[in-house]
Task: structure prediction
Amino acid sequence: MKPETWTPHVTVAAIVECDGRFLVVEEQTVDGLRLNQPAGHLEAGETLLEAVSRETLEETAHPFTPEALVGMYMTHVVRPGREGVTYLRFTYCGKNGEQQADRALDPDIVRTLWMGAEELRACPERHRTPLVMQCIDDYLAGRRFPLDFVHTHSVGPKWPMSGQ
Result:
């Protein structure tokens, strides 16, 4: 029997600030209703920038243009009765476009909200993960890395994919 390969989940998140308030989503999770930045998984063939723009649009109906990388985060989540999962999260800040009112949100998204940092800080039990506030705090501390800090190398069809 072949041993299972451990693979971390790569996710992206968007920080959108307007007049001191942050765009967050209220979403249905296995742990109940939680707050999070617009966020989701990197899909095959996407760059991180494409993923964060797509996820933000799908979850908020706001187009998103990343301007800087706020940080890269790793967290390991273990829930009772389930195997643990490791997430690598790339959080970007940027500008949102006008909300597309006729666009349906992802099925797990209940609504979008604009909340101040202190409002978010006051309800940590509602956060999807501790990364929600960590990313806001890093953003408020001025952490910014250029978009090309993470290099995306396109792999051609002849490049060997195993043993990289």
User: Anything to note?
Assistant: Helices lie at 48-60, 117-121, 131-140. The two ends are 23 Å apart (CA to CA). The beta strands are 9-18, 21-29, 32-36, 39-41, 64-77, 85-96, 109-116. The first helix runs from residue 48 to 60.
